[in-house]
Design goal:
This protein is of the alpha/beta class and 329 residues long. Strands 1, 2, 3, 4, 5, 6, 7, 8, 9 and 10 form a ten-stranded parallel sheet that branches. Strand 7, helix 9 and strand 8 form a beta-alpha-beta unit. The protein is globular. Bound molecules: S-adenosylmethionine, 6-(5-methyl-2-OXO-imidazolidin-4-yl)-hexanoic acid and iron/sulfur cluster (SF4). 6-(5-methyl-2-OXO-imidazolidin-4-yl)-hexanoic acid binds next to strand 7. The site of iron/sulfur cluster has 8 residues, from loops.
Length: 329
């Protein structure tokens, strides 16, 4: 049985990052084999239900109203449009439908609309995930009652680097939202972005924050920055593929039972890099040709990649449950 730890010291995490590449891969794959079927990957489809004009200043984001990114803003999508997208995602084999809104936080009225979407998607037999910004405790509880399976809210980076990226909400605000989601009994999806200009220490600190939560997130998305023209982070130095793969491996070792999501940035990744990520312990992806506002690989390209790697998309019965891990004794 793999022990779940919540007391990772930074030095131990940094030591993992410093291992020879092959040693790190071997270790991560061993942990992966102990906890998951190595040739299965969970697939989720994303939909932006409310696009653009966001008041936050996240310096990577196409949807912030502060930057001129040429993005057309859209109102909250009507329920029937959302349900027809979810139906298409289901038919293409996706097991979870993730709805994202460019809000600092939802108003209670907006939340009512989202709740109708969650109920509708659930009735189709798909898992549901939403990412709506900060929540109050009461809003998290209402989403739980509505049947929401996952809430995505990323820490994005280390507490120390965070202020270079976002100034309009604090790290603690994010941790508070995660606590409300956890306490409500909703599965937590929280991760970060690489390639923001952070150091390896920042990556280690981000993973330390996630792994030392009282309960590990059920899902940890690792995004490779999609550089958006007009944002302050356009033109940043890119993270190399080996450093990206290392981060996935360390996430797998620290959080053995968590789904590690190879998230944004796959359109620019080689098949080989993605294959290494799967070996290192990534076992979920976003599937479908669109993320929120940017492109993702076409479905047929992903199916061809899976086929060539002998990977199968996971079926829904194997995921749905809450509390896939618990506080270590
Ligand atoms: N507005 C909500 C929020 O920020 O919590 C929900 C949507 S927001 C787009 C969800 C996450 O997507 C962000 O926290 C960030 O980690 C990721 N993201 C946004 N833009 C990205 C980009 N250009 N490249 C990679 N990841 C990005
Ligand atoms: C996450 O960690 N990545 C997804 C999802 N959670 C909401 C979003 C990626 C967004 C990439 C840029 C875009 O398409 O706008
Ligand atoms: Fe708004 Fe979310 Fe983009 Fe930040 S990441 S600007 S909160 S949509």
């Amino acid at each position: 049985m793999t022990e779940l730890r919540h007391d990772w010291p930074l030095e131990e995490i940094q030591a993992l990052f410093s291992l020879p590449f092959n040693d790190l891969m071997f270790k991560a794959h061993q942990v992966h084999l102990e906890n998951f079927k190595p040739n299965q990957v969970q697939i989720s489809t994303l939909l932006s239900i409310k696009t653009g004009a966001c008041p936050e200043d996240c310096s990577y984001c196409s949807q912030s109203a502060r930057y001129d990114t040429n993005l057309e803003r859209e109102r909250l999508l009507p329920l029937d449009e959302v349900l027809s997208s979810a139906q298409k995602a289901k038919e293409s084999g996706s097991t979870r439908f993730c709805m994202g809104a460019a809000w600092r936080n939802p108003t209670d009225k907006n939340l009512e609309h989202v709740i109708d979407m969650v109920k509708g998607v659930r009735e189709m037999g798909m898992e549901t995930c939403v990412t709506l910004g900060m929540l109050t405790k009461m809003q998290a509880d209402r989403l739980k009652v509505a049947g929401l399976d996952y809430y995505n809210h990323n820490l994005d980076t280390s507490p120390e680097f965070y202020g270079n990226v976002i100034t309009t909400r604090s790290y603690q605000d994010r941790l508070d939202t995660l606590e409300f989601v956890r306490d409500a009994g909703i599965n937590v999806c929280s991760g970060g972005i690489l390639g923001l200009g952070e150091t390896e220490r920042d990556r280690a600190r981000l993973l330390q924050q996630l792994a030392n939560l009282k309960v590990h997130p059920e899902s940890v998305p690792i995004n490779d920055l999609v550089q958006i023209e007009g944002t302050p982070l356009a033109g940043s130095e890119k993270i190399g593929p080996l450093d990206f793969i290392r981060t996935i491996a360390v996430a797998r070792i620290l959080m053995p039972k968590t789904y590690v999501r190879l998230s944004a940035g796959r359109s620019e990744m080689s098949d080989e890099t993605q294959a290494w990520c799967f070996f290192a312990g990534a076992n979920s992806i976003f599937y479908g040709d669109r993320l929120l506002t940017t492109d993702n690989p076409e479905e047929n390209e992903d199916m061809a990649l899976f086929e060539s790697l002998g990977i199968q998309p996971e079926q829904i019965t194997e995921t749905a449950s809450c509390d896939t891990n618990s506080v270590a004794a």
